[in-house]
């Protein structure tokens, strides 16, 4: 449930809010004055405050000042009529989150409220990085006991007390955002806002204005002045995600904020001060982008003050079991009955898989398996083919038990998809000969060198098999005459 507190002395506005936010997810409380709102605050504990700037009694600005004394993190959106935007901008300096022009554009109002509520939720989710015991009941934690993860935990701890800029690197789904939040929650700025901007998700032309705001009329479509994330996040922590995707102009501006603590809105010429701690993340090798002159070297060094690299899951397989248990417990909260377990053979398959999508992929597979599974435990058959298939295809003893018919074809498609991803990443590997070679070796091992049987298993003639054996030079490897 999200709690929204509206402070406005106009009955009309209160009424429209009640209509617009008539939803089971939102609990709306209204106050007609600043004084009333301050009285309600400790009782209601809102996630978001929407407040008119001009009110009888305590002014909006004064109310905001007092709200800040009570709660330095509470998100406050100001509402103001055309022509009084200057006041709203003033209010930003007092730590308002954003402002909205009256009369409202309802879809915009809803979007703004939803985004703010999400930011408020995100800020509240404390991420723990202390080594977690399996039985412990934790809200949101970084799970891992492997050596690489121990290093990550140490760095988070060392970084937390400082204001240093940090650069988090790692493949997609390794937990970069989670680590950024953990740094924030353990930092001196944990009582101030944390905002995240995904630089790759925002169109190039808009990113600069998203970060720094813009003046009215600074470009087509800029019909009103707008404050950016750097202003919204004053005194707080800004998480710049996918930083490899910024244009050179934006890079230059970020560099300047890091160096001098000031920036200008797009189309503006007044320097604005920003006291913002930056945590950046990327899944692209920034060093390469620097070498290719796509990323400013000076900015790279500024960001790279402290580097936290998160190893891909396949390089820390001992964490898989812990993560599986963590996700089983986490999802159990949404389901009736006791948490479910996982069959040893299914766990083995998970531990063997190469995890191109890392922890996010593991999380999704567990979520899906819980839906698929009927009994108490997740079985091999509840896992997707690319995970369960590896055990079947590589299984020892007896002829290879590849499923036939349609299911087999789907498995092969899945397998091929993965192999192809590999080939894309490492074209030097020459995927077809490499796979062919491995298949021949497997078949010969399985049949203890019986070429007739091996050829049959592979669906080729004995002569073709012989040629392959010679071509790949695998006689000696397998001790075949
Ligand atoms: N060590 C971990 N312990 C528990 N959950 C984790 C861990 N690592 C990642 N997760 C979970 O996996 C999912 C992906 O993590 P996150 O979004 O932080 O990854 P990311 O590195 O930012 O990925 P991308 O590059 O795709 O944005 C999240 O749901 C997160 O909670
Ligand atoms: Mg991310």
Give an account of the 3D structure.
With 481 residues, the protein is an alpha/beta fold. It has three domains: 2-122, 3-Layer(aba) Sandwich (Rossmann fold), CATH 3.40.50.2300; 147-311, P-loop containing nucleotide triphosphate hydrolases (Rossmann fold), CATH 3.40.50.300; 314-397, Helicase, Ruva Protein, domain 3, CATH 1.10.8. Helices cover 48% and strands 13% of the residues. The chain has 21 helices and 14 strands. It has helices at residues 11-20, 34-44, 60-70, 85-93, 106-124, 147-160, 176-185, 204-212, 229-232, 248-260, 286-291, 297-303, 318-332, 344-352, 358-372, 385-394, 405-425, 431-446, 451-458, 462-471, 475-478; strands at residues 2-7, 26-31, 48-52, 75-81, 98-102, 166-169, 194-198, 237-241, 262-263, 272-273, 277-282, 306-309, 341-342, 377-378. The strands form four sheets. It has a five-stranded parallel beta sheet with strand order 2-1-3-4-5, sandwiched between helices. A five-stranded parallel beta sheet has the order 7-8-11-6-12. Helix 2 (34-44) runs parallel beside helix 3 (60-70), helix 14 (344-352) crosses helix 16 and helix 18 (431-446) crosses helix 19. It starts with a strand and ends with a helix. Adenosine-5'-triphosphate binds at residues 142-144, 170, 172-178, 283, 323, 326, 359-360, 363.
């Amino acid at each position: 449930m999200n709690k929204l507190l509206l402070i406005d002395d106009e009955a009309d506005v209160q009424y429209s809010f009640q209509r617009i936010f008539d939803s089971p997810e939102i609990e709306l409380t209204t106050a007609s004055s600043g004084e009333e709102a301050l009285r309600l605050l400790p009782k209601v504990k809102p996630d978001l405050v929407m407040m008119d700037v001009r009110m009888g009694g305590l002014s909006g600005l004064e109310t905001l000042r007092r709200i800040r004394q009570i709660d330095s993190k509470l998100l406050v959106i100001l509402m103001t009529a055309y022509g009084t935007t200057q006041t709203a901008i003033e209010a930003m300096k007092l730590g308002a989150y954003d402002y909205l022009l009256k009369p409202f554009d309802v879809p915009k109002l809803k979007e703004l409220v939803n985004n703010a509520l999400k930011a408020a939720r995100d800020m509240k989710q404390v991420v723990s990085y202390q080594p977690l015991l399996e039985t412990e009941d934790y809200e949101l934690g970084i799970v891992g006991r492997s050596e690489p993860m121990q290093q990550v935990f140490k760095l988070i701890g060392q970084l937390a007390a400082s204001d240093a800029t940090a650069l988090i690197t790692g493949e997609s789904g390794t937990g970069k955002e989670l680590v950024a939040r953990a740094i924030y929650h353990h930092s001196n700025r944990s009582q101030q806002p944390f905002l995240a901007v995904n630089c790759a998700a925002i169109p190039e032309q808009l990113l600069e204005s998203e970060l720094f705001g813009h003046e009215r009329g600074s470009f087509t479509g800029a019909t009103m002045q707008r404050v950016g994330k750097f202003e919204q996040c004053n005194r707080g922590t800004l998480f710049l995600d996918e930083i490899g995707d910024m244009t050179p102009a934006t890079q230059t501006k970020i560099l300047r904020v890091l160096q001098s603590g000031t920036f200008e809105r797009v189309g503006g010429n007044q320097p604005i001060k920003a006291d913002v701690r930056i945590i950046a993340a990327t899944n692209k090798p920034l060093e390469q982008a620097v070498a290719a002159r796509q990323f400013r070297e000076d900015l790279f060094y500024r960001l790279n003050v402290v580097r936290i690299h998160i190893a891909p899951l396949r390089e820390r397989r001992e964490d898989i079991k812990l993560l599986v248990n963590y996700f089983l417990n986490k999802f159990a909260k949404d389901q009736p009955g006791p948490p479910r377990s996982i069959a040893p053979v299914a766990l083995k398959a998970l531990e063997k898989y190469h995890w191109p999508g890392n922890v996010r992929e593991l999380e999704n597979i567990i979520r899906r398996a819980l839906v698929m599974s009927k009994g108490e435990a997740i079985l091999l058959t509840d896992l997707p083919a690319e995970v369960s298939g590896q055990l079947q295809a590589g299984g020892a003893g007896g002829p290879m038990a590849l499923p036939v018919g349609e299911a087999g074809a789907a498995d092969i498609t899945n397998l091929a998809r993965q192999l192809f991803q590999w080939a894309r990443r490492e074209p030097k590997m020459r995927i077809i000969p490499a796979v062919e070679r491995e298949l021949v070796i497997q078949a010969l091992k399985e049949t203890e060198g019986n070429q007739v049987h091996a050829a049959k298993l592979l669906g080729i003639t004995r002569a073709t098999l012989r040629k392959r054996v010679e071509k790949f030079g695998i006689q000696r490897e397998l001790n075949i005459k």
